[in-house]
Amino acid sequence: MSETKSLPKTLDAVIVGAGFGGMYMLHRLRALGLSARILEQADGVGGTWYWNRYPGARCDVESMQYSFSFDEALQQEWQWSERFAAQPELLRYANHIADRYDLRRDIHFETRVASARFDEAAERWTVTTDKGEVVSARHCVMATGCLSAARLPDIKGIAAFKGETYHTGYWPHGKVDFTGKRVAVIGTGSSAIQAIPVIAAEAAQVTVFQRTPNFSIPSRNAPMDEAYEQSWKSDYAARRREARTMRTGILYAINPLSALEVDEATRQAEYERRWENGGTAFMGAFGDLILNKASNDTAAEFVRNKIRGMVKDPATAEALAPKDHPIGTKRICVDTHYYETYNRPNVALVNLRETPIDTITATGIRTSARDFEFDVIVLATGFDAMTGALLKIDFEGRGGRRLSAEWEHGPRSQLGLMVAGFPNLFMITGPGSPSVLSNMIVSIEQHVDWIAGLLGHMQARGLACVEATEEAQADWVRHGMEVAEKTLYPSAASWYMGANIPGKPRVFMPYIGGVGVYRETCDAIAARGYEGFRLA
Ligand code: FAD
Ligand code: N01
């Protein structure tokens, strides 16, 4: 997979990251005739789907939609085997993209970008890798991912454990064999909810350590239905066009009515229909579920009742039923037999709200109530989301400005694409863009296309430098906060708010105005000669 080749001394563009974002960016920059290389710390492509190889890892956007749309031939030829693709298939798809567009010759694997400094006189970035290699690039594109900086929990004694420890976001490449083993899972976010049922089917015993329960909707995953696939493929361009106008970039029916303007029977029937159909479209049951707490309560209670119906032990069911946040304000989970797994005799739940973890020991986990012994500890403890991977790089912009200092009180950007004071530095799905609130491939394509459009515009006019203005950035940040405050999102202690990382500023980081509205804004700015950006 990996190969060693020397990094050129100068390039038109350095792209950091070989996930879907970086790969598509490289493809578009080549088409502009620019010299570009991807620097990627892993030894293969795929980003999220390279790293997250835990059992059960799967997409929760339907395969027919979680895929590139930029090439009609590609979307016609690729065949997905399931309604929701699993990680191995998504990784195959990523490798197919790399091969089909001959991208590997311009990717430097096992190369981590450590720092990037803007040379004002030359109007170029000096990029330094962890191996001390240095490259000078006119432009830098950060395709570093929103969920790529895995986070180890700050639990005492974590290094003392003598058994096997795995983080879901750094899962080993070979199969982890759980047969006959006593397994602890710490965390109950999307990763844990996918992994627990699969691990429980194999292990001798699974103990789940839950701090906060999450809402999860059954996926109803199934082998790809041929007629369904054909219905998409025969109409792909039009459906993709429509999806791009949706709030989440996912084509599904959103009921415009308020949950409160229909009677109880109608409301329950709508929830029931969406529950049976499976997946995140559940949140489209009514138009005001993320706006109105009373409406939201009806959906939350519906799901809590489903949990109570599925989990036989009433105390476990109640512990699994979320009550501390409105449904959807933390990333909603999608599962395959998650709640039913707690009916298995080899699965137990420990409620950390009642008996917190005191320490990890050499042989297991000690809570305030007792000692547990384990062979394996699975850390499903999430990511330093949205800003984590970016801030691991030491960026120095104009006048010695450091990105870490600029973002001390939370990320600030113009459209989630650029940061004032950091010319020619672009972010794909950066904070301030719809990013994690959307079908990420739709958002990636939109950002890459917009950046390529801007660079083409500059090329045609002989321009070398672009920078977001402070005024435009301030307006965008203000607008982003105003829109967020109209929703229920800020009321949850979520990773969207930075709440999972001690000391991280509590700011709602993605843009909740919707993928369609956001695209229109970006396009209008471009049409007005890139208003809010200084070009020279
Ligand atoms: P990534 O895939 O994260 O790739 C970033 C790459 O940058 C990584 O390979 C990383 O190694 C590299 N990198 C980072 N920093 C450096 C550095 N300093 N130097 C060199 N390389 C670096 N989104 C959806 O829309 N639907 C889903 O169902 C969905 N499921 C998900 C499931 C999981 C388990 C996770 C973690 C995320 C999921 N996401 C989902 C979000 C997912 O991250 C995006 O869909 C998409 O894969 C992001 O692609 P990307 O190229 O932007 O970033
Ligand atoms: O991470 P998370 P994730 N002690 O942050 C707990 C995407 N994704 O990897 O909530 C005990 O959601 C923490 O508890 P709490 C998706 O966008 C998608 O699961 O902080 N527990 C929480 O339960 C998702 O949202 C899919 O109280 C500790 C858990 O660890 C995002 O990635 C699949 C702890 C972390 O949950 C992240 O999901 C997977 C501690 N010290 C991921 N520290 C799809 O299905 C943390 N926790 C598409």
From TrEMBL:
<dbReference type="Pfam" id="PF13738">
    <property type="entry name" value="Pyr_redox_3"/>
</dbReference>
<keyword id="KW-0560">Oxidoreductase</keyword>
<keyword id="KW-0274">FAD</keyword>
<keyword id="KW-0285">Flavoprotein</keyword>
<dbReference type="InterPro" id="IPR050775">
    <property type="entry name" value="FAD-binding_Monooxygenases"/>
</dbReference>
<dbReference type="InterPro" id="IPR036188">
    <property type="entry name" value="FAD/NAD-bd_sf"/>
</dbReference>
<keyword id="KW-0503">Monooxygenase</keyword>
<protein>
    <submittedName>
        <fullName>NAD(P)/FAD-dependent oxidoreductase</fullName>
    </submittedName>
</protein>
<dbReference type="GO" id="GO:0004497">
    <property type="term" value="F:monooxygenase activity"/>
</dbReference>
<keyword id="KW-0521">NADP</keyword>
<comment type="similarity">
    <text>Belongs to the FAD-binding monooxygenase family.</text>
</comment>
